[in-house]
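Q: Sequence in, structure out?
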Amino acid sequence: MRILVALILCASLVVAPSSQATAEEPCEIKACIEVYTQDGKIVIEGRKGSGPKVSKTVAPAPKKTRKATRKPTVKPTVKPPVTPKATTAPKTSSKPKAPVKKATPRTSTSATKAATSLSDKLIEIVPTAGIAYSPSFNPLIKVPVYFWSDIPTVVTKKVEIVGEIVEVELKPTFFWHYGDGVFFVTRKVGSPYPKGEILHTYSKAGHYLIQLITVWDGSFTVEGVVARIPGTVRTVSVLPITVVAAPTRFLQ
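A: Exactly. Output:
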């Protein structure tokens, strides 16, 4: 008989100094993909880029050269006296001129289209471990108890975002706390008797609380380029266990 119980107490986050959550920088390539941890989750964020900037060089215009010109010599001329002519009053037209109408500017009735966002964000939640142990009913003191969890040693996910394929690979590290002050760290998930690698022997009878802390870290790949995911995600699972003493028999 197996017991498989998962009780989530908390999900915490350890983040490296992050620039992901700050203001976005302009993306000058085909697409900008960022994978990071936030609030106990794996965040995959993508933004479409504008492409690399091409700088255009403009040749300076040639300078114009001025030629020196000689000033012509002016000879003085003598003008004969002019006799004044009788002036006549200007004729006025009896018809008034029609007023000129000013053209009024036309307003365009076409509506402007709202700009669409090219950003996208997906949030992937890491799995939470379930704990089991064997023997499942009243394990005895001074007898090894085998523990295991249902988490795979590698979790891979493939996501398409802003036209790019992002492959995420996560690996867990297990911290087993048996409740009596002893703990064990491993990358293995364990298994039941007799092939299990995670086992512990209690020396005193009593009620204990098993605590399994799973720390996730990993990397992501975009177009063959591999990068590490900054920060780690931690989940905690607990399960109670009762250990009893073996009955004493007297033989004659």
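Confidence is low (pLDDT under 50) at residues 1-23, 107-117.
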